[in-house]
Amino acid sequence: MFHNDYNNLLLRNNFILILLLILLFLFIPKFSYAQRDILHESNLNKEEIDLKNYVEEIYLEYAKKNFNYIYKILHPGIKELLTEEEYEYYQKENFKKYKIKISEIEVGSKLEKIKLPNKFKNVVNNDIENKDIYKIPISYKMDLTVIGEEQTRKIDNQVYIIIDNKQYFLLWDPTVIKKNEDDEEN
Fold it and tell me: How distant, in Å, are the alpha carbons of 20, 23, 118 from that of 16?
């Protein structure tokens, strides 16, 4: 009898040990990825962390359809080409037409200092000598309706921020609106 109880106890303990090992091996990779991201995040300087937070704030406001906020942070060169009313009208109509909902916003940790991309050369004055320009990866989930069909898309994109006199400005291509207007006329 003692022998059977001992075997049952040993069997149960071995089962628990194996179960714990399996759980441990399942979760260790997840912890190591999280730790890697935290370590990478800790390698960012204050300005990069501020930029990352800034981009997240932009997209949270965009998801809330706060287009007035977005317009205010656009680069002044964009505002010379596009009025606040035009920008807000375009965004509101797009969100309404496609029933857009944005969620699961994630700003990547790989911030890259770059030269001004060609698509912004007509928007930003040539006076960019002493200004930092960053490309910041962002991803989010977009729910929308196209031709009556509900869709969910995972969007991976880049956000461009220019720093001018310690002030951040969002770079955005306003030709999207003109292209959309041209498409509607045809």
Answer: 6, 11, 61
> Of the candidates 96, 89, 131, which has an alpha carbon nearest to the alpha carbon of residue 114?
131
Radius of gyration for the alpha carbons in the chain, expressed in angstroms and rounded: 25
Cβ(167)–Cβ(54) under 8 Å? no
Chain centroid offset of residue 80 CA: 26
> Would you say 104 and 141 are in contact if contact means Cβ atoms under 8 Å apart?
yes
Q: CA 61 to CA 52: how far, in whole Å?
A: 14
Cβ atoms within 10 Å of 23's Cβ, excluding its own: 10
**Confidence (pTM):** 0.73
pLDDT tens for 60-93 read: 999 999 999 999 999 999 999 999 999 999 999 9
How far is the CA of 105 from the CAs of 17, 53, 60, 72, 101, in angstroms?
39, 12, 7, 21, 11
